[in-house]
Amino acid sequence: MSLALQDRLDAISLRTKVTAVTVLLLTVGLLVSGIGTMAMLRPALIGQLDSQVNAVAVELSRMLDDSSEPGTNSSTPSDYFYALYADDGTLLVRNWADKGLGLQPAIASTWSADDTQQLGGRIFVVDSIDTRTTFHAVATAVVFQDLSGERGSLVVAAPTSSLDRLLTTYLSIFLGFGIGVVIVGALLTRFLVTTTFAPLREVELTAAAIADGDFSQRLPGATPNTEVGRLNRALNIMLGRIDRAFAERNRALSQMQRFVGDASHELRTPLVSVRGYAELYRMGALPKKRDIEQAMDRIEKEAIRMGALVEDLLALARLDESRPLEVGEVDLTLVAHDAAMDARAFDPERTVSVVRNDGAPLSSPLVIQANDDKVRQVITNLMGNALRFTPEKSPLEIAIGVDKDSATISVVDHGEGIPAQIRDKIFERFWRADSSRTRETGGSGLGLAIVASIVNAHNGTINVTQTPGGGATFTVTLPVLHTPGN
What SMART domains is this protein classified in (predicted)? Predict the structure, then answer.
């Protein structure tokens, strides 16, 4: 098959192809059945005609044997032709002299007994005188009783014109019904194909809408046990996954853009300070040694803050990669006591206590399967926030406990608390309640984001609630490995 023909076939719609194939099959089927019927019907009719010719010959022979003249008996068919010959072959009588040439069999005017004997009673075919039709004939020996038992020959013939007319009529009727069946079949097939393929049109329109960027489109429901229904269900599942994937991608892209923008802002601020002090020094605007020392001190602090910010960014990037953590047994009791000691060292005038909220002794180990450094970073960040955002000398508590298969560690402060409307935002990257981005209290905005990422990497949860009497309580829940003493 040439490429051009293949291209033309590919350009034809599926409905047209199915309709054309159905019409072709109907046509071929009708042609085969018609040809087969004609092939079987004609021999059957010929056989019937031959039997009738033989029967008429027998009847005429009986009439001659009874001394009756052929044709005088009303039982003799009028559309059969006969000729009577003497034993020497002389024609005695025939009944087609007054017929037209098309109805006169071309039988010889002489017919001997030897001719009859050679045929042996077999049917033979002769044409009409004008050769426009044929006759089936039979020759038989007869005895003339009125001629004292003289013998002769009787030839009986019947035209096949009536048989041909019957076959022509049958063929006309068959062709008429066949054409009607093909037309009705084509229309019915077109209707059924159009109805059946209607859901595919919906698939096409939905696909076009999706191609334009509308990933919320879904295919309408169809009968689930049909091919189209199963296709719709599979496509809807695929579209749902694609929609979620694109939504997740857009969300991640939006977060990344915001993250990059905030990171650029956070890094630009200390760089501007460092550059400003460097330019002042280069321009000679810091003549005094004390001014130079103050400038160097500010440059060092900004560099330290910028380094801490970069470390936080790297920590978040590593957590985002979802690499498996190196885990081991971590005793939360020991971690809590260490965090309390660090807080007291940072702010000696503040009361920091460790309590058990599950009734177990304070010295009882509480072991979980986790990464020790990451868990300590979580508590350190939470304690750092509490120390930064609560009034001086405001007490802090670290509460640990176990509930079924989970261990909890809470950092409780008694400061101003966190308004309910922003509690879902505080774990976002670079989000700070201090809109002025005050460096003294605002931090980098990454501490709680790092906490949330670490907890999530441990398959844990973190939430914040209001402390009774005022303040905020951050509660981290992590899976427990085992709890000795419980």
Answer: HAMP (SM00304), HATPase_c (SM00387), HisKA (SM00388)
Average pLDDT in the chain: 81
> Check: CATH 3.30.565.10 for 326-482?
yes
Task: Mention the CATH class of domain 227-317.
Answer: mainly alpha
Of 411, 334, 336, residue with least CA distance to 365: 334
What HEC string does the chain produce?
CCHHHHHHHHHCCHHHHHHHHHHHHHHHHHHHHHHHHHHHHHHHHHHHHHHHHHHHHHHHHHHHHCCCCCCCCCCCCCCCEEEEEECCCEEEEECCCCCCHHHCECCCCECCHHHHHHHCCCCEEEEECCCCCEEEEEEEEEEEHHHCCEEEEEEEEEECHHHHHHHHHHHHHHHHHHHHHHHHHHHHHHHHHHHHCHHHHHHHHHHHHHHCCCCCCCCCCCCCCCHHHHHHHHHHHHHHHHHHHHHHHHHHHHHHHHHHHHHHHHHHHHHHHHHHHHHHHHCCCCCCHHHHHHHHHHHHHHHHHHHHHHHHHHHHHHHHCCCCCCCEEEEHHHHHHHHHHHHHHHCCCCCEEEEECCCCCCCCCCEEEECHHHHHHHHHHHHHHHHHHCCCCCCEEEEEEEECCEEEEEEEECCCCCCHHHCCCCCCCCCCCCCCCCHHHHCCCCHHHHHHHHHHHCCCEEEEEECCCCCEEEEEEEEEEECCCC
Report the distance separating Cα 94 and Cα 84, nearest Å.
6
CB 383 within 8 Å of CB 342 = yes
Q: With contact defined as beta carbons under 8 Å apart, do 46 and 224 qualify?
A: no
CB 142 within 8 A of CB 65: yes
Q: Distance (Å, rounded) from C-alpha 134 to C-alpha 157?
A: 10
Write down the pTM of the prediction.
Answer: 0.48
> Are the folds of 227-317 and 326-482 the same?
no
d(CA 383, CA 380): 5
Position 476 scores a pLDDT of: 93
How far apart CA 360 and CA 399 sit, in angstroms, is 12
Q: Return the residue matching tokens 């602090």.
A: 301
Closest CA to 368 of 299, 455, 302, 431: 455
Under the banding of pLDDT at 50, 70 and 90, the label for residue 146 is low
Domain residue spans in the chain?
Answer: 1-196, 227-317, 326-482
Q: Does residue 159 surpass a pLDDT of 60? A: yes
CB atoms within 10 A of CB 200: 15
